[in-house]
Design a protein that fits this description.
Elements (H helix, E strand, L loop, with lengths): L13 E5 L6 E2 L2 E2 L3 H15 L3 E5 L14 H10 L4 E3 L6 H8 L6 E3 L15 H5 L2 H7 L4 E4 L10 H9 L2 E3 L1 H15 L6 E5 L4 H11 L5 E4 L1 H10 L15 H17 L4 E2 L3 E5 L5 E5 L10 E4 L1 H13 L2 E5 L12 H12 L3 E5 L5 H5 L9 E2 L4 H7 L5 H7 L1
Parallel strand pairs: 1-4, 1-7, 4-6, 5-6, 7-8, 9-10, 9-15, 10-11, 15-16, 16-17
Antiparallel strand pairs: 2-3, 12-13, 12-14
Helix pairs in contact: 1-2, 5-6, 6-15, 8-10, 8-14, 11-12
Bound molecules: adenosine-5'-triphosphate and 3-phosphoglyceric acid (3PG).
The site of adenosine-5'-triphosphate has 21 residues, from helix 9 and strand 14.
Length: 401
C-alpha cells in the first residue's frame, strides 16, 4: 500500500474527513444504506482517538431530485456511531468556520453538501482544484485530511483531489479496505469459469466492463435497464421509453453502436433475459416471454423467473462471480426476483464473489442475506468498475503522491 493510513496519524488532531454518503432519496427522504455503516467505522475510530472531526460529503447532482442538504445524513450517521454528530448548513463560509472553530476532541461536524459549492464540480486537474477558494480556505483549519470516499475516487472534484496536494493526507479505513480488495480482484487469476452479472441503469458502466473484461469473463448475464438495451440491439421491441422518464432513449442514442458491436463480437459470451416482468392492471407482478412481445406497452421492471432459472446453473458452475448493477427495481419487492434470485444463487455456492454498486449492495440486507456469504461487498459503483478494469482512480492517485 503506497498511501498513509490512520495508523500513521497522531491522535487528537483536527481532521477534515471526506466520506461518500451519497444515498438514494425517496420523496425527499434520504435512505439509510451500507455507506453509513461502513464510514461509521472510520468516524468511530477517530472519535475514540479524540480527533476533532469535520466531514465533507456530496449528495446527488445539481438539477436532480436527489440533490439535497446533508442535514438528514448527519442524523443517520449519528445513529451508526455512538456519539453526537452535528450539522452546519454551510461548507466553507463564516458559519462553517465558526462551527469548525468550536470543535473539541471527539466531536463530529458534518458540513453542507460539497456540490452546493461552485468550485467542487466540474472535473478539473487536481492542481486546479487545489487552488480553489474552497480548498484554500479549509486547508488552514485542519492538521490533516483523510479521504475515506473510495466510491467517489474516480471523480476529480475539489473535495477529493484538491486537499491532498496542499495538506498531509491519509486514507480512511473504507478507502483502505476497498482499495485493497478491488485492486486484488483486478489482479486475480481464476482457473475455472468466471461469470459477471451486469444490470442497473447505466449502459456506459456495462459497456466499460465488457470492453475491458471480455478476456477475463466467460459469461456476462444481463438484466436491468442496460439488459433491456441489449435486447433492443438483439432485435426485440423493448429498450425504449414509453413514458417521459427518459431511461432508455438517450442512452440508446449515445451507446447503440457500441452495444450492437459488443453483441455481434461477443454473442457467445452474452446471455440475455428470456422473460421480463411488469406491473399488471391489478398492481401485481406479471411476466412475459421476450419472444411474445410485439410492442412495448408497459415498463419492464425486472427480469422474469425463467431468466433466473437460466442464470442460476451458470452461477453454480462458476469459480468466480462478479455483480454490478441490479437486474430489476428490487427496492419494490414485486420486482426483486431477478436481483435477489441471482444473489441467493451466489450466496449458496462457495465460489469467489464480489458484489459492487452503492444501490445493488443494498439488496443483500433487504432480502435477508449476510455480507459474509459473499467474498467482498463493495459500496462503490463507478469506482468499482474502474478498479476492475485496471483503470487508475484519481482520488487514490493523489493520496499516493
Ligand atoms: N428495469 C428497471 N427499471 C427501473 N429501475 C431499474 C431496473 N433495473 C434496475 N433498476 C434500478 O437500478 C438501480 C441500480 O442501478 P445502478 O446502475 O445505479 O447500480 P449500482 O451500481 O448499484 O449503483 P451506483 O453505480 O450508483 O453505485 C436499482 O436501484 C434498481 O432499482
Ligand atoms: O454514488 C456514487 O457512485 C458516487 O458517490 C459518485 O457519485 P456521482 O456518480 O454522482 O459522481
Amino acid at each position: 500500500m503506497t498511501f498513509q493510513t490512520l495508523d500513521d496519524l497522531e491522535d487528537g488532531q483536527r481532521v477534515l474527513v471526506r466520506l461518500d454518503l451519497n444515498s438514494p432519496v425517496e420523496d425527499g427522504e434520504v435512505q439509510d444504506n451500507r455507506r453509513f455503516d461502513r464510514h461509521a467505522e472510520t468516524i468511530s475510530e477517530l472519535v475514540d482517538r479524540d480527533f476533532e472531526v469535520a466531514v465533507l460529503a456530496h449528495q446527488g447532482r445539481p438539477g436532480r431530485d436527489d440533490f439535497v442538504s446533508l442535514s438528514q445524513h448527519a442524523d443517520i450517521l449519528e445513529s451508526h456511531v455512538d456519539s453526537p454528530v452535528d450539522f452546519v448548513a454551510d461548507t466553507f463560509g463564516e458559519d462553517a468556520l465558526s462551527a469548525i472553530g468550536e470543535l473539541d476532541g471527539g466531536d463530529v461536524l458534518v458540513l453542507e453538501n460539497t456540490r452546493m459549492c461552485d468550485e467542487e464540480l466540474p472535473e478539473e486537474e487536481p492542481e486546479v482544484k487545489a487552488e480553489t477558494e474552497f480548498v484554500q480556505t479549509l486547508k488552514d483549519e485542519f492538521d490533516a485530511y483523510v479521504n475515506d470516499a473510495y466510491s467517489a475516487a474516480h471523480r476529480s472534484h475539489a473535495s477529493l483531489v484538491g486537499f491532498p496536494l496542499v495538506m498531509d493526507a491519509y486514507a480512511g479505513r473504507v478507502m483502505e479496505t476497498e482499495y485493497e480488495a478491488n485492486t486484488a480482484i483486478a489482479e486475480k487469476e481464476f482457473d475455472g469459469q468466471v461469470t459477471m452479472v451486469v444490470g442497473g441503469t447505466k449502459a456506459t458502466d456495462v459497456i466499460d466492463v465488457m470492453t475491458h473484461l471480455d478476456e477475463k469473463v466467460d459469461d456476462f448475464l444481463l438484466g436491468g435497464i442496460a439488459g433491456e438495451l441489449f435486447l433492443r440491439a438483439a432485435g426485440y421491441p423493448v429498450g425504449y421509453d414509453i413514458d417521459d422518464a427518459n431511461l432508455y432513449d438517450e442512452q440508446w442514442e449515445q451507446n447503440s453502436e457500441k452495444i450492437e458491436s459488443m453483441l455481434e463480437d461477443h454473442r457467445d459470451q452474452i446471455t440475455l433475459a428470456v422473460d421480463l416482468a411488469y406491473e399488471d392492471d391489478d398492481g401485481s407482478r406479471a411476466e412475459q416471454s421476450v419472444d411474445d412481445i410485439d410492442e412495448k406497452t408497459v415498463s419492464y421492471l425486472d427480469v422474469g423467473s425463467e431468466t433466473v432459472m437460466e442464470y442460476s446453473p451458470t452461477i453454480r458452475e462458476s469459480e468466480a462471480v462478479f455483480v454490478k448493477g441490479a437486474l430489476g427495481m428490487f427496492e419494490d419487492e414485486r420486482f426483486s426476483v431477478g436481483t435477489a434470485g441471482v444473489l441467493e444463487a451466489i450466496a449458496e455456492t462457495d465460489c469467489f464473489s464480489v458484489v459492487g454498486g452503492g444501490d445493488t449492495s443494498r439488496a443483500i440486507e433487504m432480502y435477508g442475506m449476510e455480507e459474509d456469504e459473499f467474498g467482498h461487498v463493495s459500496i462503490a459503483g463507478g469506482a468499482y468498475i474502474r478498479a476492475l478494469t485496471g483503470a487508475e482512480l484519481v482520488g487514490v492517485e493523489v493520496l499516493q503522491r
